[in-house]
């Protein structure tokens, strides 16, 4: 375990960073509950949504593959 921390410290030092002695570094990975929607809610959820409403204006979402002719509302 000490060799691992020594290697980690050396890698940090090469990158211009350092860890002070006595600090605890930790992380946890937890399982998130799966989203289970009833059939009625699934029908309402639009996974292909291309439009968004922002400050009262309806516009195409950024990054969508729509051209300028498709983004106009009539």
Automatic annotation (TrEMBL):
Keywords linked to the UniProt accession: Plasmid
Organism: Azospirillum baldaniorum
Record region (Disordered): 34-74
Protein's name in the database: Transposase
Biased composition annotated in UniProt, kind: Basic and acidic residues: 34-60
